[in-house]
Structures are given as C-alpha cells and as structure tokens.
From TrEMBL:
Interacts with MinD and FtsZ. It comes from the Bacteria. Belongs to the MinC family. Keywords: Cell cycle, Cell division, Septation. This is Probable septum site-determining protein MinC. Pfam families: MinC_C (PF03775), MinC_N (PF05209). The keyword Cell cycle applies. Residues 13-80 form the Septum formation inhibitor MinC N-terminal domain. Residues 129-228 form the Septum formation inhibitor MinC C-terminal domain. SUPFAM superfamilies: Cell-division inhibitor MinC, C-terminal domain (SSF63848). Cell division inhibitor that blocks the formation of polar Z ring septums. Rapidly oscillates between the poles of the cell to destabilize FtsZ filaments that have formed before they mature into polar Z rings. Prevents FtsZ polymerization. The gene is minC. It comes from Bradyrhizobium hipponense.
Amino acid sequence: MEAAARPQRQMVRLRGRSYVAFVFVPTVPVQDWLHEIDATIARSPGFFAGRPVVIDLSSVDLSQSGISHLLASLQDRNIRVLGIEGVEEARLTSAMPPLLSGGRSCVVEPSAPKKAEPKTGAKPTSLLLESPVRSGQTIIFPEGDVTILGSVGSGAEVVAGGSIHVYGALRGRAMAGVNGHASARIYCQKIEAELLAIDGFYQTADDIDDALRGRPAQAWLQGNTMRITALN
C-alpha cells in the first residue's frame, strides 16, 4: 500500500509596498505645538483624518509617559500614528507604534502618462503630465519639477522635489521642495488650492487672499514665510 502523499505547504506570499506618510516633528513646549495642530485642523477640517503619520521625537526629550500622552493627544485629534522615529527603543512600550528608521522619499508611479523618456541609465529631472490630475489621485516625483498641462482636481495631491507648474486650475494640494529645496516654487493659472506647501512651510485655503482666487498665481518662500502673489 502506497503511503499517502503529503500535502504541499502553501508558501506565504510577501510583497513590499511603500506608502506616503506625514512626518510630525514636535517642539517644546509640546502643548503649544499641539495648539498649532489644532489651528491647522480648524482651518482645514479633516485634513489629517485617515492619513498615516510618523512622529519624529528627535527635537524633544520625552519620558515614556510623555510619549504616551502625546500619542493619546494626537489620537484625540483623529491623527493616526504609523510609527515613531528619533527616540531610544527603551522609551517605547509594546502598545505604542513601532520604532522606524531609514525613512526616505519614495517614487509612486503616476497614473498619468509620462513624457520624454530619459537617456539610458539617467534619472529624470522633470515629469510632464499631459492629462489632468483627478480627485483622489496622488502624483509624487521627488527627483525634480512636475509640470501639469491640465488642472489638479479637488482632493488630488501633487508632491515634487522641485517646483510645480500647473497650466490649469489648482484645486487640490501642491507640495513642492519636499527634499529641502527652499527655492522651489508653485505656479498655476487659476489658484483655488486646498493647500500649498514648500519645504514643509504651508498655507491652507483659508490663508490664501480672496483677491487671488481664480487668478494666475505663484507661491515661494521668503525666509520662513510663504508668499503668494498674482502671476502677471
């Protein structure tokens, strides 16, 4: 009698995948920093809701109980903390988000076609999109400038290492200079943005002068202040 065949083991299939997260860097006094978070939420309700967040604690010296209180305060504001950076692992408990390291910018393949293939072996320094960026889409290109010949819809997001050029209406979010390029700018033919950011400094829709709405505009940094003016 032949021995029964052993069932084959089903191998566990693992896949790597990158997600984009906001990195919060609390400063002291932490309570004042939380008030700034509250002000941001008040200007743009729901902006952080459902978005993954990483907390970088390298600028503060918090005890284990202090970290717990900070995480609870963010949870009360509907801010989900995906992980923690910049702190000794001994200060974290098993109930806290994991300690992360090695975070870096990642490239998400855009849903719109890319123009002008680069030379073999060379990385592209700009991205040209001929189609509009529709609501819910995210375009991330940390290597350089992003140019969009159409519009950016409400709820859409464009993230660039360099400048952002929109040859239509900008109704969603545009974040330029994400790799520390303070000289980056944002240009659009019709400004109706939900949020503009350059090198981490940002303004929400409520911060933009009503006189500029619907007009061509540009945004740039002057020191630590974002300036938004008409584009003549």
